[in-house]
């Protein structure tokens, strides 16, 4: 080997032996240095709620005894900062004082842990909860026996590598079509978020497990949807061409009730900016992030950590609902049910006798 080659080898060996100084990033706990409102503006939750969320998933988070390890609370804060801003991992890492890989691990692990709690925090109302839900909706616009409002929304994602054309929605970009149902307090009570953007809302509903439950008679009440859904005995949609004052009043009440799901989507996406900007990940990861944001949204509502909602129903009587069971034919379709609601509630020319 030529002498120049030996000199190059010795130079590389000496360079390997030179110790590099370790770099310790500033990882101070933001909960200790920022006020509650400053924490809320950056992470979309106040300190006590962040501690509560960390306690829910503490056993699933990475723990290490190494110096300058990323603590569980910092892992949760890193994930919340990503969901709140929708920034690249490098930018989130610079803000939090961690590496890009640490951000990726924290986001992935925290989202997986929170998404696993979806059955605990996203539940369709039954029993006394269903009665309370009907009472809340009845106070909005007087529509009877409403269990939830249903609609779909697009969540933008990067171009998938497989079946790319299925994810192009009617607006021309790649997305998932997320079908959700909310209650009168802007909480999600059902969500199906794994369908490509090209799938129509009515098809998602047709394939959902909740529809099968309604078909089997497991729920006593109505869902409220727009004209994109079929009118069924348990799914009320507006009249496309209302011809009577009663039908017009029916539509007005339905629209005022159905706007709840639009407001829920607005609160949800405003809180988690990543849902507005789009998620630069594969569809499977986007489904998990959507579900995580839905669980966190409900946690925020339950802990009054979004907006001050004041719903007090101590003096409300739950038995002031229109009883339609004894007046409807056993085999009724959606059109007959809708017309009967108009006849008993919205047609002022009739002498109404409401059965309590």
- Gyration radius from CA atoms, angstroms: 26 Å
Number of strands: 5
Major sheet: 5 strands, mixed
Low-confidence stretches: 308-331, 351-356
Question: How would you classify the helix and strand content by structural class?
Answer: alpha/beta
Distance between the termini: 101 Å
Mean pLDDT figure = 86
Strand content: 5-15%
Topology readout:
Layout: H1 3-17, H2 30-33, H3 36-43, H4 47-57, H5 72-85, H6 89-96, H7 100-115, H8 118-121, H9 128-141, E1 146-156, E2 175-182, E3 188-196, H10 201-207, H11 209-215, E4 222-224, E5 235-236, H12 245-271, H13 274-277, H14 283-302, H15 334-346
Parallel strand pairs: 1-4, 4-5
Antiparallel strand pairs: 1-2, 2-3
Helix pairs in contact: 4-5, 5-6, 5-7, 6-7, 7-14, 12-15
Describe the overall structure.
It is built from 15 helices and 5 strands. The chain has 356 residues and is α/β, with parallel strands linked by helices. It has 2 domains: 102 residues, Cyclin A, domain 1; 225 residues, no CATH class. Strands 3-2-1-4-5 form a 5-stranded mixed sheet, sandwiched between helices. The longest helix is centred in the last third of the chain and has 27 residues. The C terminus is likely disordered.
Task: Using brief descriptors, characterize the structure shown.
single chain; Cyclin A, domain 1; 2 domains; cytoplasm; 15 helices; disordered C terminus; alpha/beta; about 350 residues; 5-stranded mixed β-sheet; HARBI1-like; hydrolase
């Amino acid at each position: 080997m030529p002498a120049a080659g030996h000199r190059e080898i010795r130079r590389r060996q000496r360079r390997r032996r030179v110790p590099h100084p370790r770099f310790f990033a500033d990882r101070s706990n933001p909960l200790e240095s920022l006020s509650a409102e400053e924490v809320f503006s950056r992470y979309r939750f106040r300190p006590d709620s962040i501690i509560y969320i960390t306690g829910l998933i503490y056993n699933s988070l990475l723990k290490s005894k190494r110096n300058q390890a990323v603590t569980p609370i910092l892992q949760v804060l890193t994930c919340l900062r990503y969901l709140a801003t929708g920034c690249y991992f490098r930018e989130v890492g610079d803000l939090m004082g961690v590496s890009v890989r640490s951000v990726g691990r924290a986001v992935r692990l925290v989202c997986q842990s929170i998404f696993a709690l979806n059955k605990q925090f996203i539940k369709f109302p039954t029993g006394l909860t269903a009665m309370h839900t009907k009472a809340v909706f009845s106070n909005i616009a007087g529509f009877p026996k409403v269990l939830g409002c249903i609609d779909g929304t697009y969540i933008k994602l990067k171009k998938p590598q497989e079946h790319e054309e299925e994810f192009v929605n009617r607006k021309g970009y790649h997305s998932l079509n997320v079908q959700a149902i909310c209650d009168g307090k802007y909480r999600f009570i059902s969500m199906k978020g794994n369908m490509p953007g090209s799938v129509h809302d009515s098809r998602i509903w047709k394939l959902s497990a909740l529809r099968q439950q309604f078909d089997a008679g497991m729920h006593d009440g109505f869902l409220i949807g727009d004209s994109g859904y079929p009118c069924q005995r348990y799914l009320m949609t507006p009249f496309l061409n209302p011809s009577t004052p009663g039908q017009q009043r029916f539509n007005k009440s339905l629209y005022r009730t159905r706007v709840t799901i639009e407001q829920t989507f607005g609160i949800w996406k405003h809180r988690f900016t990543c849902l507005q900007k789009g998620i630069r990940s594969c569809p499977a990861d986007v489904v998990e992030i959507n579900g995580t944001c839905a669980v966190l949204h409900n946690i925020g509502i339950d802990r009054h950590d979004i907006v001050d909602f004041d719903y007090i129903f101590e003096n409300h009587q739950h038995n002031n609902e229109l009883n339609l069971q004894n007046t409807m034919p056993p085999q009724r379709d959606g059109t007959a049910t809708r017309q009967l609601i108009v006849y008993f509630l919205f047609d002022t020319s009739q002498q109404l006798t409401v059965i309590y």
